[in-house]
Amino acid sequence: MKKKILLSISVLAVLVFSISQASVSKAGGPGEKQSAIHWYSLEEAQRLSDSIPRKIFVDFSTSWCGWCKRMDAETFSNPIIAKYMNEHYYCVKFDAETHDTVTFNGQKFFNRGPEGQRSAHDFAITVLQGRLSYPSYAFISKDRLKFTILPGYMPADQFEPYLHYYAEEKENVVTYEEYLKTFVSELPKKEAPPKPIGPPQY
């Protein structure tokens, strides 16, 4: 009887361990979704870039922005996009209407509007140069002195070449239009829609 109980416990322990290992392997780490973008705070991204220089990517969004939610659900959730962003940028998701105080390059930025009301944060106003449309993205140079702004929702296939263009620092070498001519996507090719069948020929 004792042997049976011990055997059952052993089998159960192995089973639990296998399931937990499979979950960790699939997710890429405890509590982490596979290929999810690692979003840092603005201060964390700066500290990391000081240690290992890399461009900072900032996604300016708001809680009420429908296109921002679609960007999260369709583009940022794409595993190829997420993997590339994690490898080449320090990514920051910034609520453009937060009332938190943030520090960038030693300067403090605030939201000067009243609490509980929608108002733009000074950091969003400064980086986006007052063009407050959401979502908008900032590619910030490694020395944190140059900002390139890209506005609007984009599906993964349109967004991907911009990620490569700025990560490779091609903006200093070639125009985006020229870069596109030689860009090779890592995304799976979309199947062409079936051709419509015309009326029968007699």
List keywords for this structure.
41% helix; five-stranded mixed sheet; alpha/beta; 7 helices; two-stranded antiparallel ribbon; Glutaredoxin
Give an overview of the whole structure.
With 202 residues, this protein is α/β, with parallel strands linked by helices. It has a single domain, classed as Glutaredoxin (3-Layer(aba) Sandwich). It is built from 7 helices and 7 strands. The strands form 2 sheets. Strands 1-3-2-6-7 form a 5-stranded mixed sheet. A hairpin with a 2-residue loop joins strand 4 (102-104) and strand 5. The longest helix has 26 residues, at 2-27. It is globular. The termini are far apart. 20% of the residues are buried.
Short account of what is shown:
This protein has 202 residues and is of the alpha/beta class. It has a single domain, classed as Glutaredoxin (3-Layer(aba) Sandwich), CATH 3.40.30.10. It is built from seven helices and seven strands; from the N terminus they run H-E-H-E-H-H-E-E-E-H-E-E-H-H.
The overall pLDDT, averaged over residues, is 84
Overall structural class, as computed from helix and strand content, comes to alpha/beta
Spatial ordering of strands, largest sheet? 1-3-2-6-7
Cα distance, first to last residue? 83 Å
Q: What is the CATH superfamily?
A: Glutaredoxin
Beta-strand level of the residues, as a percent range? 15-25%
